[in-house]
Amino acid sequence: MDLKICGITSHDELDIVDQEGASYAGLWSGIAGHPRNLSDKSLTELAERCQNVAPVAVCVKRPVAELWNLIRETRVRHVQLHGFNPPRDIAFLKDRGVTLIKTVHVNDDGESPVDRLVDSYRTAGCDIFLIDRFGGRQAIGSSGVCLCSRSVARWLDRLEGARVWLAGGLTPDRICGLPEDRRIEAVDVDSAARMACGAIHRKAARMLVLAARSPNLFEAA
Ligand SMILES: O=C(O)c1ccccc1N[C@@H]1O[C@H](COP(=O)(O)O)[C@@H](O)[C@H]1O
């Protein structure tokens, strides 16, 4: 499995994620007031600093035309729409050659507020669905809480045929416990990449990369 580490805010964090071998680095834009939200300048600088890791612009409410104006001259070609976007937002970015990741927010009962939009997202050209735990409109990500395996299995079935990533409270041991049927292409982590909710930590990032690459590593030990 590939690994995305989300919420990068500094050169040091970006270098850790890049050097330790994560596949994707999440760069926040358009979530006013959030501590990990980046200015346009910082997002551009961090994206240009990526060597091996692919930068992903992660947005909640930013208008997609404005977002495109920001990223078009950068190396960012992956966008994660993390919120309640209409399908036309996906079509807009797909027309411009972006690889589009749409978060499917799933609550603790296994239900999603975007359930009725999923088919339209597919029709609009969504490349990847990211299943993430939803704790309510004020807690739409970075929850540090995992979904139960039954909800994950249900959504994997619902998204049959699509590329799927998974997020929500994932730790190295939880990644090892995920089904190994290759339906989950990548895992997306925020909380477990940090020490005490602080900065991204090199050893934590290394453990996550190891778990994602060799899911049975800890079971075998
Ligand atoms: O990464 C962040 O800083 C972030 C902030 C606000 C909303 C979402 C955020 N990231 C997304 O949260 C999940 C993973 O979170 P965790 O591992 O459960 O803490 C994933 O979808 C990230 O893209």
TrEMBL record:
Pfam families: PRAI. Its EC number is 5.3.1.24. Residues 4-192 form the N-(5'phosphoribosyl) anthranilate isomerase (PRAI) domain. SUPFAM superfamilies: Ribulose-phoshate binding barrel. Keywords: Amino-acid biosynthesis, Aromatic amino acid biosynthesis, Isomerase, Tryptophan biosynthesis. GO terms for biological process: L-tryptophan biosynthetic process. Gene3D superfamilies: Aldolase class I. It catalyses: N-(5-phospho-beta-D-ribosyl)anthranilate = 1-(2-carboxyphenylamino)-1-deoxy-D-ribulose 5-phosphate. InterPro entries: Aldolase_TIM, PRAI_dom, RibuloseP-bd_barrel, TrpF_fam. GO terms for molecular function: phosphoribosylanthranilate isomerase activity. Pathway: Amino-acid biosynthesis; L-tryptophan biosynthesis; L-tryptophan from chorismate: step 3/5. The keyword Disulfide bond does not apply. The keyword Iron does not apply. Belongs to the TrpF family. This is N-(5'-phosphoribosyl)anthranilate isomerase. It comes from Fertoeibacter niger.
